[in-house]
Specification:
Length: 332
């Protein structure tokens, strides 16, 4: 199975798209996954140069974008263009770079608490997909919708894909975002397995907290949420999907206050049996006790903290790649 790296994992290095490609080659991964932000350009000549360099290095490129749902708080209207227009442009970029997928998403955790019901956001996401269906089919690109930042549980994303049409819409499995919605990553995998075409895979630790549970993202192999078992099941997908890593360490633990009634207002259709599988992980888990620099996004931290966090990005990416190759047996 091909091993990839989502280059958002090294977003703080100050590298351009070409340097990121060289880094992927040096790491020995097979696929470089760029968001539009990491590409930094949609200029045709620049994209062609990047594709030529990737071909010379024997690397594949995957492309991702942000929200395709205009009612989601994650959709920034100031960036210009409708959801459909942005998706059409991103499809052309993906095609130019030889990507067989276009990662996209609905939104984030805020979608579960807006005046607009989550079901409406999902319907609007589906509508965007349907509008670009012919273009995606003609280009041979699947829209890979991610379970992103607390927006959807596995069963909800599966429903979105099936409603839009799995002939051109698939899933980008994010196991780090599974724990954000109090879901065992294996549960997310089981719901999405028939439709997974790429991934943002990372490990997590979860443990009990007086208000529910806490979680933290860690390098591959440092977690306690069963990622080796997920990887074994994932490998059975074969050429259907790439095993693409998104390593996001360095942030403080986050709280899931599910022992408080307010939490469940965002999950009115939660499934008890699936939540119980997550709770089992929590009861067996412990906090991460390894070395990690932690800087909150809004922290006024010294420059030395930031330098250490930047170095940590590379350190955790590189040991995650080694773990996948040497322990999980992934990578060509």
């Amino acid at each position: 199975m091909k091993l990839g790296l989502d280059l958002y994992s090294v977003r703080s290095q100050g590298w351009d798209a070409m340097r990121m490609l060289d880094y992927c080659h040096d790491l020995g991964v097979n696929v470089a996954h760029y968001g539009l932000g990491e590409l930094g350009t949609t200029n045709v000549e620049d994209l062609d140069r990047l594709k030529a360099r990737a071909d010379a290095l024997g690397l594949e490129i995957e492309v991702g974008m942000g929200s395709i749902c205009e009612t989601s708080p994650s959709f920034n209207p100031d960036r210009g263009g409708t959801a459909v227009e942005r998706t059409r442009q991103a499809l052309e970029v993906a095609h130019r770079l030889g990507s067989r997928v276009l990662k996209c998403l609905l939104g984030g955790a805020a979608d579960r608490r807006t005046e607009t019901p989550l079901e409406v956001h999902i319907a609007n996401c589906v509508a965007t997909c349907r509008t670009v269906r012919e273009q995606a089919m003609d280009l041979g690109i699947k829209l890979a919708v991610e379970n992103h930042a607390g927006d959807l549980q596995g069963w909800e994303l599966r429903g979105l894909i099936e409603e839009a049409g799995p002939e051109y819409v698939g899933a980008c499995l994010d196991t780090g975002n599974s724990v954000w919605v109090a879901e065992d990553p294996m549960v997310t995998f089981e719901h999405l397995a028939p439709y997974i075409v790429t991934s943002h895979l990372r490990d997590s630790v979860v443990w009990a907290h007086p208000r529910g549970a806490a979680y933290q993202w860690v390098a591959m192999g440092d977690g306690n949420v069963g990622m080796p078992a997920v990887a074994e099941r994932y490998k059975a997908l074969g050429d259907q999907a790439t095993f693409t890593l998104e390593i996001l360490t360095g942030t403080p633990p986050r709280l899931l206050n599910y022992l408080e009634p307010e939490y469940w207002t965002a999950f009115p259709q939660a499934r008890a049996a699936e939540f119980a599988r997550f709770e089992r992980l929590v009861r067996q888990g412990q906090p991460f006790v390894g070395t990690m620099v932690m800087v909150a996004a809004d922290a006024d931290a010294p420059a030395e903290y930031e330098a250490a966090r930047i170095a940590q990005q590379r350190y955790d990416v590189e040991r995650s790649v080694r773990y996948c190759r040497e322990v999980l047996g992934i990578g060509e």
